[in-house]
UniProtKB/TrEMBL annotation:
Residues 10-126 form the Response regulatory domain. One of its GO terms (molecular function) is sequence-specific DNA binding. It holds the Pfam family AAA_lid_14. PROSITE patterns: RESPONSE_REGULATORY, SIGMA54_INTERACT_1, SIGMA54_INTERACT_2, SIGMA54_INTERACT_4. This is Sigma-54 dependent DNA-binding response regulator. Keywords: ATP-binding, DNA-binding, Nucleotide-binding, Phosphoprotein, Transcription, Transcription regulation. Residues 156-384 form the Sigma-54 factor interaction domain. It comes from Neptuniibacter caesariensis. Transmembrane segments: none annotated.
Amino acid sequence: MRNNLYPQFGILLIDDEESFLRSMSIALERRGGFNHIYRCQDSRKAMQVIADEPIGLVLLDLTMPHVSGEELLQAIASDYPDISVIILSGLNQLEVALNCIRLGAYDYFVKTTEEDRLIEGIRRAVRLQEMSFENRELRRRFLSDTLEQPEVFANIITQDKAMRSVFQYLESIAPSQQPVLIMGESGVGKEQIAHAIHTLSARSGPLVSVNVAGLDDNVFADTLFGHHRGAFTGADKARAGMIEQAAEGTLFLDEIGDLSQASQVKLLRLLQEGEYYPLGSDRPKRIRARIVVATHQNLEEKQLQGEFRKDLYYRLRIHQVEIPPLRKRKKDLGLLLDYFLSEAADELGKAKPTIPKELPVLLENYDFPGNVRELRAMAFDAMSQHRARILSMEAFRRVLTADHSPELLAEKGVAVRFNEEQPLPSLQEISDLLVEEAMRRAQGNQSLASRLIGISQPALSKRLKKLQGDEPL
Ligand SMILES: Nc1ncnc2c1ncn2[C@@H]1O[C@H](COP(=O)(O)OP(=O)(O)OP(=O)(O)O)[C@@H](O)[C@H]1O
C-alpha cells in the first residue's frame, strides 16, 4: 500500500550482479526498515527507471558493463540534481571515491563495509533527502499560503497566524516516518494536533494514545512492548504492546517530559534501532508505527539540566511544533467562546444565549493558565447555570478576582524598574498611568476597568474626571 512505504520516495539499486541486488534489498528491508525499493540490473535501463518512478536515492555500483557507474552518476547529477547517489563499489581506492564525490555523489562505500555502517549511512542519506523534500514542500505551502486538507483541522478553532503555520508545517511533514514532538502548555490542544498528524499521514492503522507520566520503567516497557506468556509472575497470557496495536498507525506518547531515565533509554533504543523486544522474548520485532510525542514541559531546559537525555531529545525533535498558549492568540478568544457555547448548548439541549458585551473584553484581560481547556470549562459551566436570554457572567466571575500578590505579579512579568538617574515618579503619576492602561484594556468600559485594578467604579470615575481636568486634584 502506498502510504505504508518507507521512505516516501523510492530507493533504486543499480548493480549488474543479481546476487548483490538480492542480498542488498533484503538487508535494506530487514535492517533498515526500508520497503520502497527498486532494482535495476541493466545499467542501460537505469535512467528510464528514474524517469518513470519516484526515485529519491540511488545506490550505484561503479563497475558495470554497458554504461559505467561513473557515467550514470554524471547523468543523474545533471538531469536529477535532487536525487542523492551513494556509490557502492568493489574498489577501495581513495582517488576513485574522491572523484565520485566531486562528480556529485553523496557518499561512497566499499561493498565489504560492515552492514551496520552501510545501513546507518543510507539512513543518513534518507533523512537528508526527507528534509530537503519537506523544505521544498514547506516553502511551496508558505509561499502559496495554502492548506491542502483544511478539513483535517476543522475542529481546531483558530484564526491565529502561528497556528496556521503549524498546520502548514504538519501537512508538509505528513508522509514522513520520523517522530514528531508537540510542545505547548497544558490545555493548548496538543492531543488534537496529534489526531491531525495521524489523519494527515493517511496511515491505515489506528492512533493509539498512552500517557506515560508516572509509569514506572517496568510498566512502561510492558505497556509499549507487551509480553510473552510467563515473562514475569502473573503474566499468564501473552499480551501485545501498544506499539503492536498501533501497527501501520500512530503511537502517541503524551507527557513525554515525565519519562523516567530508564524508560528514556528504552525509547531511544526503539527510535534508533526501529526494533524492540517484547518482555520474555529474545526475538526482536520491527516497529511499524509512527511515534508522536507531546509535553507541556520545556524539554530543551530539562535536557540542559540533565533531566532528559540529550540524544533522545535530538531524536524526538526532528520534527517539532510549538502550540502557542491562548494568551498569545487572544484573537481566538471570541471564536472559541462562541464555539464552546454552541457545543455546550447542543449538549445540554438549551438555546444558545446572547453573549454580554463586556465578556470578550473581560476575557482578554485574563491570562488563561489552563488555556483552551479552561475556557471550554468556563463556557460549559456558564451554559449549565444559564437560564435567561443573556448569558450570566457568574461563571466567569472568578476571572475577576484579581490577585495582586507580589508572587503573582512577578509571574505575570510585572516588574517595575525605575531609572536610577531620574527622580521617582509621584504616586499620583503612577496611579494615572494605571488608570489609563486599565481603560485601554477594557476598551473604555469603566466598570470593567475598575475591576481590573481593584477599585470601585465610582472611584475610577472620579479619578478619570481628575485626569481629564474636570475636577481639582
Ligand atoms: N483550537 C481549539 N479548538 C477547539 N477545541 C480546542 C482547541 N484547543 C483545545 N481544544 C479543546 O480543549 C481541550 C484540551 O485540549 P487537549 O487535550 O488537546 O490539550 P493538551 O494540550 O493535550 O492538554 P494536556 O497537556 O493537559 O494533555 C479539549 O477538550 C480540546 O478539544
